[in-house]
Amino acid sequence: QIPTLSLLYKLSRIPLDADHLPSHESNATFNDKISIIKADITSLVIDGIVNAANEALLGGGGVDGAIHRAAGPDLVDECRGLDGCDAGDAKITDGYDLPSKKVIHAVGPRWYALGPEDAQAKLKSCYRRGLELAVEHQLKSIAFPAISTGVFSYPNVKACNDALSEVRKFLDEGKGDGLQRIIFCNFLQKDQDIYYKNVSKHFPPV
Ligand code: AR6
């Protein structure tokens, strides 16, 4: 059963605006905490969005470029003071001109630079660090893009399953109790389809 959009709205404060919200059919919530949406992550009115950054944390292409463009130049100014970030780790900043209060900059693995096991460990660690920072900063809602699946070439289906399994593990460990909503925000229809196909392995519908 698909939950009402008003629930999604109440918990994550995504604007109920046809321009921003995906259609009813393209939303699904699992275990009352997980949502899968297809959207531009920079449009979300939410406590925190995750960026798929690189080690320098100074912007780039893909979702990183979109986030920096939408946040304005104050974001890169704050990022300059962070001294970069290792792959598998994440650092938090303000959201500036974004509708999101905070940005969590996670650095995903480059698929072809690492063996599959190292890459997997680092990708999972991005999701875990993102969730840990969200909890530490009392964020109630957080949205993740499909980290590493663009420029960094991580295989999409594997990325989806690794992300879902790590988020599930984090919640099973009781560490995400302060979080009300975790959103997987896909930009490409391909990833949206992959998430829909795989989510029930990790979050059976309730
Ligand atoms: N909202 C949500 N997702 C998006 C958006 C958006 N506005 N734009 C793109 N995506 P990528 P990576 C999706 O390449 O693979 C950058 O240059 C995109 O379709 O952004 O982790 C950084 O500076 C894909 O599904 O990130 C790094 O150098 C996903 O975001 C490097 O790329 C991730 O694709 C990071 O590569």
Automatic annotation (TrEMBL):
Domain Macro: 21-203
Domain of life according to the entry: Eukaryota
Protein name: Macro domain-containing protein
